[in-house]
Amino acid sequence: MAVLCSGQTAYFSSCSHRSFSKLVPSSMPQFIRHHRVLASNCSPNLAIGRSHRRRRSSSLYVTPSTTSLVPVEHSESTSVGEITRSDFPILRQKVNNHDLVYMNNAATSQKPKYVLEALRSYYESSNANVHRGVHYLSQKATTAYENARVKVASFINASDDREIVFTRNATEAINLVAHSWGELNLSYGDEILLTVAEHHSAIVPWQIVAQKKGAVLKYISLTADEVPDMDQLKKSISNKTKLVVTHHVSNVLGSVLPIDEIVTWAHSVGAKVLVDACQSVPHMVVDVQKLNADFLVASSHKMCGPTGIGFLFGKYNILSCMPPFLGGGEMISDVYQDYSTYAEPPSRFEAGTPAIAEAIGLGAAVEYLSGIGMQQIHDYERDLADYLYYSLTSVPNVRVYGPAPSQITKRAALCSFNVKNVHPTDIATIISEEYGVAIRSGHHCAQPLHRYLGVNASARASLYFYNTKAEVDRFIETLKSTINFF
Amino acid sequence: MVTLLPVVLDSSALVTRLLLNPNPNPNPNLSYTHNPFFSRSLRTHPSVLRCAAAPLLASSFFSGSSSSIAGSAEYSTESLSLRIRRISNEFRSLPESIDRVKRLLFYAADLPPLSEDDRIPSNRVTGCTAQVWLSARIDAAGRMRFAADSDSEITRGFCACLLAAVDGANPEDVLAIRTVDLADINVIGVSGYTQSRVNTWHNVLISMQKRARTLMADEESGHL
């Protein structure tokens, strides 16, 4: 790993973990292929250079080292999960005398040492406010912060890092679009299309704006296979449609939607598309240029990064026409007693001191994931997803929501389910307290979907690349014991 | 109506049932229909024997409050405090969280179901991961009378404990309860934390206090 680290940035050279180098193919990882331009977050004494458009001071950017990457070191029989687990100290603990089995990754992911080290390093050697000083630390912090934006842009293949706006989380990113773009572009009788499977964060902001503007929310229901009905969505798009709000991967159903097709249909009538990618960006290659969506949001904490930071991707020509969401420092150009002029995006939407360390941590998370390779993560998780689904559906009296996997239908590595005659919260409590298995229960911020499914709540096991089939086996075994408990 | 196994109906459980249900359900034959997955099987399933490991302090906990609730004229702030302390002591004596869960399930088994008339949206306790219904009224003696139910057995256990503490208390005393006083009945997480959104008993207690406040205001304004 040390070789790989030094091959990317000074940040990598400072990281101590070695496990994910075992997964790195001899070819360059996606992140490095796309952007060989990342600056060190640590060292200010680096050469300057950048392959495409620069933002703010060009002195913030540096050229990477060209050290070659190491080949795969590990046995091919070892899974991604088994190799990467050692990067996550939190997973080593025991809960109620049992090895922790963490399967609540759709709620939040765990953080690798690499990200923890990035946070520690920032506070130990770079802490300062960004864009607010010419002194050494301020430049260092600003460099690291802006490089995090470049890393995120690279990760989702945005054509311009000005298209990445840092927010507190995906929820704030959606609120930003709702209140800024929505206030400006929605009017009486306009329609916003959503699926019934949206997360509350993709519903409530639009309810608020729609009530103000007299717009209408229209919901797309599910097919018999419990997937949002794409035929219905296509037919529902009309000249009244101004926006389609849709998830990429459902946090309850585990289904994956064809965003590129949805975008084509929406654009044919001039409507915009906002993609909730919270459950896709951490788990698969997401290319915003290929998807061609107008807005896309994701949260850092679901992708190995810190809490308190997320991002909005918006096409620059759209962002540049949007008014500010919040007012304050950093987002202005000039302030007079009676009025102000505003900075260009993304600064226009980042009022006040941002979550600097968290953004840098997100940048480190992106590096970490890219080091493994998002396609490798996705391939591994697909296998885990099927294993989880078929293991769970083999348990008597268990009902799993969402589509059955097939050659055509691919599920995410999560299953929401109910057990006949036992409340999901009781299941989640017992399986945690008695066996140390962490799953979630409740409506998963998707009450409309649960009502549609005819239940008030469900239990959910959601996996990430550091989970293993052995853990799935452990989960199933303890679930059976929990059911017998009742 | 499910028949209880004899082993569940031991003396302490009978006391429990009596105390938790000072006003027996007028229609005990009502069954659960809201949740198709819900059944009352826990109360009769043989595995309940494991859940219903005999409460160490159940006898003193409930017998101590028996006279207070039965003889409501003697109910006082002190007795409410005593009840809460006994509940806290009982759960504090169970260091393993799974044992606290089992204790809750034990008490849940004897909580009478809420009537259908009371399982209405206005009685829903919001913010819980399970569905909880809470009915409240002030009796002729001016004391708060609560009944509660849930589609989760563990939550029913929480409700049973809360009812054992506050049912029959003066409204002012209900309002004076602090959530930290009942922190020991937490069954998950770190002992003493009280603010999680998934902390059902916390939401139920807050709801009890809101209802008490509203009923007091109604009484003062003559809207009974």
From TrEMBL, chain A:
A single GO molecular function term of this UniProt record: pyridoxal phosphate binding
Biological process annotations from GO: cysteine metabolic process
Keyword Nuclease among record annotations: no
UniProt domain Aminotransferase class V: residue ranges: 101-475
Catalytic activity: (sulfur carrier)-H + L-cysteine = (sulfur carrier)-SH + L-alanine
One Pfam entry name: Aminotran_5
Required co-factors: pyridoxal 5'-phosphate
EC number: 2.8.1.7
SUPFAM superfamilies: PLP-dependent transferases
Enzyme category, top tier: transferase
Tree of life domain: Eukaryota
Keywords: Pyridoxal phosphate, Transferase
PANTHER family linked: CYSTEINE DESULFURASE (PTHR43586), CYSTEINE DESULFURASE 1, CHLOROPLASTIC (PTHR43586:SF8)
Name assigned to this protein: cysteine desulfurase
Protein source organism: Platanthera zijinensis
UniProtKB/TrEMBL annotation, chain B:
Domain Fe-S metabolism associated: 89-210
Xref: InterPro entries: Fe-S_metab-assoc_dom
Pfam family for this entry, one: SufE
The family this protein is said to belong to: Belongs to the SufE family.
Protein name: Fe-S metabolism associated domain-containing protein
Source organism (scientific name): Platanthera zijinensis
